[in-house]
Amino acid sequence: MRYYPVFLDIAGKPVVVIGGGNIAHQKVVGLLKAEAEVTVVSPELNEEMAELANEGRFRHIKRDYEPGDLEGYTLAFVATDDRSVNATVAVEGKERRVWVNAVDDPPYCDFIMPGIAQKGDLIIAISTSGRSPAMARKMREEIEAFLTEDYAAMLELAAEVRAELREKGTLVDADIWNKALDVELRKLLAEGKQAEAKERLLRSLSEPVSTT
């Protein structure tokens, strides 16, 4: 396994995107959702990027990339379709210890971006280790079809109940949790029976428990 899977908390952290086209826009949208502090370096922005810039969603440096532009950033994304820029940014990233992702150019990447299937806070990342973006997309589409809204509802309920139990100092074994999050619970949630679903979950978790 070449790549180590990880989810990063980048809220409030400075991230730079080099490029102003469609791919750069996709990166910026994802970064803004994760509440990163985004700077875009590009002489031009596409229409969607320009709208975000006008709304003050990110800082725009209106010029081509120049050596030194990675100073002070945590992550850098390069989306220019210019391999010479990718190479230069990758070198600077290593010098400044900034992790770099050059879109569709794995030799100049310190990390690669997975395909994402998401329902609410339930996020599944799919990677082919950079070997086949088409396969990653295919798997993402199939998983998205599988992830119905009741999975997101079950996550919300599980998080709510877990927080309540922890406040009481009650710990429940992971195996018991796994059995409790079953098809019948999902069915109740799909039918909108939130109260019944919570009662069922609490009952399923009640034996055996340990108390701190």
Secondary-structure element series: EHEHEEHEEEHHEHHHE
β-strand amount: 15-25%
Helix coverage percent of residues?
Answer: 40-55%
Low-confidence runs of at least 5 consecutive residues: none
Average pLDDT for all residues: 94
Number of E-type strands: 9
Q: If strands are numbered along the chain, what order do they take across the biggest sheet?
A: 3-2-1-4-5
Task: Give the CA-CA distance, first to last residue.
Answer: 39 Å
| Largest sheet data | 5 strands, parallel
Radius of gyration: 22 Å
Structural class: alpha/beta
Helical element count?
A: 8
Overall 3D geometry?
A: elongated
Task: Explain the overall architecture.
The protein has 212 residues and is α/β, with parallel strands linked by helices. It is built from 8 helices and 9 strands. It has helices at 22-33, 47-54, 83-96, 133-146, 149-167, 174-180, 183-190, 194-205; strands spanning 14-18, 37-41, 59-61, 75-78, 99-102, 115-119, 122-126, 170-171, 210-211. The strands form 3 sheets. A 5-stranded parallel sheet has the order 3-2-1-4-5, sandwiched between helices. Strands 6-7 form a two-stranded antiparallel ribbon. Strands 8-9 form a two-stranded antiparallel sheet. Helix 7 (183-190) packs antiparallel against helix 8. The longest helix has 19 residues, at 149-167. The radius of gyration is 22 Å and the shape is elongated. It starts with 13 loop residues before the first strand and ends with a strand. The mean pLDDT is 94.
In short:
This protein has helices spanning 22-33, 47-54, 83-96, 133-146, 149-167, 174-180, 183-190, 194-205; strands at 14-18, 37-41, 59-61, 75-78, 99-102, 115-119, 122-126, 170-171, 210-211. β1 (14-18), α1 (22-33) and β2 (37-41) form a beta-alpha-beta unit. It has 212 residues and is an alpha/beta fold.
